[in-house]
Amino acid sequence: MLYQLLYSLHRYYFPFNVFRYITFRTALAVLTAALLTFVFAPSVISRLKRLSLTQQIREDGPRTHYSKKGTPTMGGVLILGSLLLTALLWMDLKNPYVWTMIIATGGFGLIGFVDDYMKISRRNHKGLRPCYKFGLQIILALGISLFLYRNPLDPYSTKLSVPFFKQLLINLGFFYIPFAIFVIVGASNAVNLTDGIDGLAIGLVAIAALANALLVYISGHVKLANYLQVLYLPKTGELTVFCGALFGAAIGFLWYNAYPAEVFMGDVGSLGLGGALGTLAVITKHEIVLAIVGGIFVIETVSVILQVASFKLTGKRIFKMAPIHHHFEIKGWAEPKTVVRFWIVGILLALLSLSTLKLR
Predict the structure, then answer these.
(1) Which residue range is the domain that position 127 belongs to?
(2) Residue 37 within any structural domain of the chain
(3) What is the model's pTM?
């Protein structure tokens, strides 16, 4: 909204021409989202406390988490609110990819909101039944995938781009749709599984947002894309602004979510942010790169799968507890140390993902 208004003034005063640049609006998006989160966080946290929207702790979880009972949750409404409002302010609303991201983020966030509300109303850690929860996620991801499959703007709509190789594309054909659903739903739930200790998931989301901002900007810039021999995807460069807003909202929330957390994001935040990262990867053909930049999310998810499979097949556990961050907690790692070490690995993986731009 502000973008169209302010840029239209360049006809009368040339300096307003600066609003046409994606890099400038990305910087504004970071500042706007962070500022909105900082300003509204105290009142949102206070309101969550008054409404008794507090965290329900797993009885089989680490003992150190028992003290977290009563901490406000559903803080994801603050993250998504800041993110989506910023996107509406600084992005080109005529771009269909902008609305795809807004629908994906808001839709997955809404599913998480319902799940959180049911957990709180029942006073236990169980919310929506898995069949309903995954069913709604799959339906939403299906709608997004069908739109992208038939997208006239994308000359590579059914192609899978393989990093580290020059223009290596695999045509998935109709199988692109179930693949895209898997990426989007998988990313949403991977972030959800990682959100188990103070600051871990939101910090990793911030790291992923920064890496994606650079990847998306290059893919949407014809000269840079040709120089680095990556796919040029028209109109996707605008999503750099979305990545900036995501980063700003994430660091703003991290201020209050860092150990000891004053508020948790809840499923409304984790499912919404994961859905956003997954949809962004599918739009920009960075599905495989997402598995690298979000490597910690992948490791967390795989640890749960292995733990469940091992216990059902052999009756034995591989880890002391899954997801794997709980394993290290039980081994004696302090919570802040676990978070910082996982962030370090996340940063290294993000740098590895950026290296795919030159190793072609």
Answers:
(1) 21-44+72-159+169-283
(2) yes
(3) 0.94
